[in-house]
Design brief:
heterodimer, A: mainly alpha, 79% helix
């Protein structure tokens, strides 16, 4: 297991280097931020001095080396619109809020998704199975922000169960609808996958033996089949978590939540490119990390993967 | 060619087969892919909806009751009624007309960005799988890198680079620079899945005897890749491409929602939802109609993709 983890970590180094390179190219293409930092009336002499101070007058390969060095130190540069505030701080502040919503969404998606999946596998081609399949098709076709708007219309405007928007630390009621929005969308894929994996496992020999022994239907389903069907579900949950973060970017503005999504939306509005690029790098980092964790979980759940490697 | 062949087979009246008794089972060919595709009610409905959307998009100029940018003073934020079936927005523009014109953006971006992704993904996947070795290693690491980015965020980063200036001719979609930015951003981030699938497909196909025969006859790599190997990868590519159109439409809606889409005043569904943000709690029609249009279109592409997968899967031919 130890060498497996080590090798897996080593494999991510070229990918991370590639991510950093692309991020550099993108921010380099966006040009020097000095003009934007200094405003319309800066004189050329001052511009030159600031440029030299920030290192924008150096040749490309030097800037690239600097970029990598800064990244290694966790420095994503300075924001343009917020008086040079550190992009890293801005992103971390936003992420702290977004993570809360995403966690809620993961809880909703796993309980609802796995539950629906088990019921559908229990009675395939029944009305439960049919409606969960319709639900799943809809789930992957919904833009996250539209789902958020619909939930707001139903639960806040019509039924008045939840506040319409805004965010105050400590109040959970503001986080329910955003979490539900994201959770419902990824419930779709998890429920279908759980169902299909369970059905596949249920047709294997050891399940027939368990049934022949006289095990009850639910014990066969939950005790024998479910643990083995869980392996692929875990992988999808990993990539779903990543998709949830992207979904959060789109839904947060609907609910006026000051998370990473609102940070990006505001940065786009003010053409604050260092923030946009920084978010891109941080998200890629999170994605790569999640993939490693998923791979390890995979090897832990299914020993055959470890040995085959 | 295979379609014509199948047509002659299915044209044989069923009672002729019956007269030969037991041999009928041997003679009967599996239904062709399009029979299986449209025999499926979901795929049929999906195709119907897509044709309807296509019609709306193409004929928006004649079908739409109003021009998409006409601001009707005095009838701002009117609810659905006889003169405005879908209501009007905060500038008094007719929502039904804007939804019709918006179909142009969604379909055109969805399809064209997918074509770009196909060009990149198929070429890289073919080269990677066919040549193997160092080329494969480099190309696949490159693919991993692009796939490590969240698709939408990379597309956001690319579109955000572009400084928006008002379009000179807003009526003509392809003359609008923001259209090309969207096309490029979505196309250039969406090819990784295609490349991986094509590569996997090529890895199995290139070991087949007919490829060895083509090599022995002195066929060049390019010719073998595109004339001999590629045609046998077409089925999974079609399925992926159909699903990817839906994904790109969602991506375009997301970018437009964040204000990175087609330049105003040309309507896009995501942009209309973005406009609706501050009004929809009291004026629900602002969000519900364009949103439903997105869901219907993406859902149809997804269902069609699933239907195509079932219809083209050789394992399903029994």
């Amino acid at each position: 297991m130890g060498t497996y983890i080590l090798r897996r970590l080593l494999q991510t180094i070229p990918v991370l280097f590639g991510v950093a390179t692309i991020a550099f190219l993108l921010s380099d293409l966006s040009g020097s931020p000095v003009r934007q930092l200094m405003g319309q009336h800066a004189n050329p002499e001052m511009m030159k001095r600031v440029s030299a101070h920030l290192g924008f007058d150096k040749p490309m390969h030097v800037r690239f080396a600097n970029h990598i060095l800064h990244l290694l130190q966790g420095d994503l540069g300075a924001s343009i619109s917020k008086d040079g505030k550190s992009v890293t701080t801005i992103i971390l502040d936003g992420l702290a809020v977004t993570i809360k919503i995403t966690m809620g969404a993961v809880v909703i998606a796993t309980t609802l998704g796995i539950g629906l999946g088990i019921f559908s596998a229990w009675r395939p081609r029944s009305w439960i199975d049919y409606s969960s399949s319709v639900f799943a098709s809809l789930g992957i076709s919904f833009p996250a922000f539209f789902m958020g708007m619909l939930l707001l219309l139903i639960f806040s405007v019509k039924l008045q169960w939840f506040p319409i928007g805004g965010y105050e630390a400590g109040y959970i009621s503001n986080l329910v609808l955003p979490s539900l929005t994201l959770g419902l969308l990824s419930t779709a894929s998890i429920s279908r996958l759980t169902r299909n994996c369970l059905l596949e496992t249920l047709s294997s020999d050891y399940i027939r033996s368990a049934r022949a022994k006289g095990r009850g239907e639910w014990r066969v389903l939950l005790g024998h089949a479910f643990p083995n069907a869980l392996v692929p579900v875990v992988t999808v949950m990993g990539s779903d978590f990543a998709a949830l973060l992207t979904g959060a970017v789109l839904t947060e503005t609907v609910f006026q939540i000051p998370g990473i999504g609102s940070v990006i939306a505001e940065a786009i509005f003010q053409h604050d490119l260092p923030v946009v690029m920084g978010c891109c790098v941080v998200f890629a980092l999170i994605f790569v990390m999640i993939n490693i964790v998923v791979d390890m979980l995979y090897a832990f759940l299914d020993p055959r993967i470890r040995h085959a490697d | 060619m295979p379609i014509e062949h199948a047509r002659t087979v299915s044209a044989v009246p069923p009672n002729m087969g019956a007269s030969t008794g037991g041999e009928e089972e041997l003679v009967r060919r599996p239904a062709t892919w399009w029979v299986r595709l449209f025999g499926n009610s979901r795929s049929l409905t999906a195709t119907g909806i897509l044709f309807f959307m296509l019609l709306l998009a193409l004929a928006a100029g004649t079908l739409a009751p109003y021009n998409y940018k006409d601001q009707l003073r005095g009838s701002e934020l009117v609810g659905p009624c006889a003169s405005h079936f879908f209501g009007t927005d905060y500038l008094g523009r007719d929502i039904l007309s804007r939804v019709m014109y918006g179909a142009r953006v969604s379909l055109l971006i969805g399809i064209s960005a997918t074509v770009l992704s196909l060009l990149i993904g198929v070429t890289l996947g073919l080269c990677s799988g066919y040549f193997g070795g160092k080329i494969d290693a480099v190309l696949m690491r490159f693919t991993d890198t692009i796939a490590a980015f969240p698709t939408l965020l990379l597309a956001i980063a690319i579109t955000a680079l572009y400084k928006r200036t008002p379009a000179e001719n807003p009526d003509l979609l392809v003359a609008n620079p923001s259209f090309w930015i969207l096309f490029f951003a979505l196309g250039v981030v969406g090819w990784t899945g295609i490349a991986r699938v094509v590569r996997a497909q090529v890895l199995t196909i290139k070991t087949l005897d007919y490829v060895t025969a083509a090599q022995a006859l002195g066929g060049g790599s390019g010719r073998i890749m595109f004339r001999h190997v590629l045609p046998n990868c077409v089925a999974p590519i079609i399925v992926l491409a159909t699903l990817s159109i839906g994904g790109n439409i969602l991506g375009e809606a997301g970018l437009s929602f964040l204000g990175l889409g087609i330049q105003e005043p040309f309507p896009s569904w995501g942009g209309m939802l973005s406009d609706a943000k501050s009004y929809f709690e009291t004026q629900w029609w602002l969000a519900v109609f364009p949103g439903t249009a997105i869901v219907l279109t993406v859902l149809s592409f997804n269902l069609l993709g699933d239907g195509l997968r079932d219809a083209l899967d050789p394992k399903a031919m029994k």
